[in-house]
User: Fold EamA family transporter from Streptococcus zhangguiae.
Amino acid sequence: MEGIVYALIPMVAWGSIGFVSNKIGGRPNQQTFGMTLGALLFALVVWILVRPEMTPILWGVGIIGGMLWSMGQYGQFQAMQYMGVSVANPLSSGAQLVFGSLIGAIVFGEWTKSIQFILGSIALLLLVIGFYFTSKQDSHKVVIEKGSDFGKGFRALTSSTIGYLSYAILFNNIMHFDALAVILPMAVGMVLGALLFMKFHIQLEAVVIKNALVGIMWGIGNIFMLLAAAKAGLAIAFSFSQLGVIISIIGGILFLGETKTKKEIGWLSIGIICFVAGAILLGVVKSF
Assistant:
């Protein structure tokens, strides 16, 4: 029970990042920079308290991983502005799950049993169906959201998915570090990546400082993800963390005023059900 409670915290923390940051405001590069500053502050506090052993290779790989993560987050913030949080977040998470699972199964041989291929294939199919319904738009919708551009949104999601997948593969499949040790080098890389998107024009505006709160939320989610995995196992921790999509969808509609027609609400509900079922099933696959 304790592990499940721990798993709920990253679900809420990570699921809230999109709508909290967009409620604060700012351009995607300002949101990314502010978030990375908060992550760096959190990482410094963790380092002071834990004092893990640090090696040159951990620093090098950690910084590269953090820069890849920044690419993913910057693209996600762009997609949110073009498509809305309630659409961009499930599409982003779903793309990472589908392509990450396929790469893990095909390239790194993570699926070795017949049951894993059967359940994994069903899970991926559910995620693809979830993709379709969460992004489906009513052709009779009268109100067009300001700044809405699905073409640009999908292009941003593509670069975001590449960044996130590269970061995940680097840390999960190629290199394996203690999460409490690598969090500081990674945070440094995150800030460097954000500065690249700002072309090193550092401006500590109010909106940037406020977005640091989002980085602290990200760090809290990371810590409790570790605790949940230790108490309840990786399968449960992983599955619950993906349910944050529900938080982001509800938050986008309630707090950002993203409008949905009755048809879109119905399609979104189907998409959420398929997405959640697929994510949980992938967690089951990981438990074998």
In short: The longest helix spans residues 56-83.
